[in-house]
Design brief:
It is a single chain. By secondary structure, the chain is α+β, with helices and mostly antiparallel strands. The chain has two domains: about 210 residues, no CATH class; about 70 residues. Helix content is about 45%, strand content about 20%. The chain contains ten helices and seven strands. A five-stranded antiparallel sheet has the order 1-5-2-3-4, covered by helices on one side. Strands 6-7 form a two-stranded antiparallel sheet. The protein is globular, with a radius of gyration of 21 Å.
Length: about 300
């Protein structure tokens, strides 16, 4: 039995807590929000635009309350790319392995790489674990995506999964949310594009950028949104925000509107009636707890 909702009513942290407490097995799907012309009453007793699920943005898999795998639609979860991002393969090695290993499953490819002494089993486990955590930490900051949890739906058998204690993920993710809030305040909309200053002068002279920064710089063009650059660089929203924020602070780039810039979202409801809103939200969470325990 599946249950669904919207992150505007139930945060990712609350959902993870419920899955952990109920020791659920299944997959949590999160979708891009599509705002309609209809209005609905939310859990706080206020009207808001109705949001329906769009393209799947991410999926997070669990087994008996443990996190085991996560993927993002805009990122390439290919094993070679995961190992490359973790620094276990160089760019040329990753390219060759992607081309020659495309017909193999992750498990088969992992065994071949270990036998060829490219990487160790520990390298693979650690890389997939970090890849999964990065995605979940990023998803924990999402606020308006529709979601669907499908019980007993697991990744394909050929995928490599790494069991991770969900309690520690929730604690660390909550801490990181506080750290990335300033980045979200500075860059709330990833549909903006970047361009170099009209008079860059000597700004890039003597600048020492890391590999990730140079990758982002190589895609900077007023036609490319920050979100598109993140996809090209296989980065999460948080990762691209960190890089772009640093480039902006250094005066190396400027924000501009991209061709596909979306119209601004409607303003959030005011904080009037906060006590009533909190009580209503708590009531909704309690109903969800009861529902998931009965699933």
């Amino acid at each position: 039995m599946a249950f669904k909702g919207n992150l505007a009513d139930f945060s990712t942290t609350q959902i993870l807590n419920l899955i952990n407490l109920a020791r659920k097995t299944g997959t949590l799907h999160l979708f891009a929000p599509i705002v309609t012309n209809e209005t609905i009453m939310d859990g706080q007793g206020k009207k808001r635009p109705k949001v329906i699920p769009g393209k799947e943005r991410a999926s997070v898999c669990f087994k008996e309350g443990q996190l085991i795998l996560a993927s993002v639609g805009d990122q390439d979860g290919n094993l070679a790319n995961v190992l490359h991002k973790a620094g276990k393969l160089n760019t040329e090695q990753a390219r060759v392995i992607r081309e020659r290993g495309s017909k193999y499953s992750d498990k088969a490819l992992a065994l071949m790489l270990i036998n060829a002494n490219y990487v160790s089993k520990v390298d693979i486990v650690q890389s997939i674990r970090q890849h999964t955590l990065n995605i979940v930490f990023d998803v924990m900051g999402w606020k308006e995506e529709p979601f669907l949890f499908e019980e007993n739906v697991l990744p394909a058998a050929e995928r490599i999964t790494v069991p991770i204690d969900l309690k520690n993920v929730i604690i660390e993710g909550s801490r990181r949310l506080q750290e990335v809030k300033p980045l979200e305040d500075e860059l709330p909309n990833l549909d903006f594009a970047l361009k170099f200053p009209d008079t860059p002068g000597d700004k890039f002279r003597g600048i020492h950028l890391g590999v990730e920064e140079w990758r982002v710089v190589s895609f900077i063009n007023p036609k490319n949104s920050i979100r598109q650059i993140a996809k090209a660089c296989n980065m999460t929203d948080t990762e691209i925000r960190k890089v772009v924020y640093g480039l902006l602070q250094a005066g190396l780039v400027e924000l501009v509107k991209s061709p596909g810039m979306q119209p601004p979202k409607p303003p959030k409801p005011s904080s009037a009636g906060a006590f009533q809103s909190t009580a209503a939200k708590r009531s909704m969470v309690e109903r969800l707890i009861t529902k998931i325990k009965d699933v």
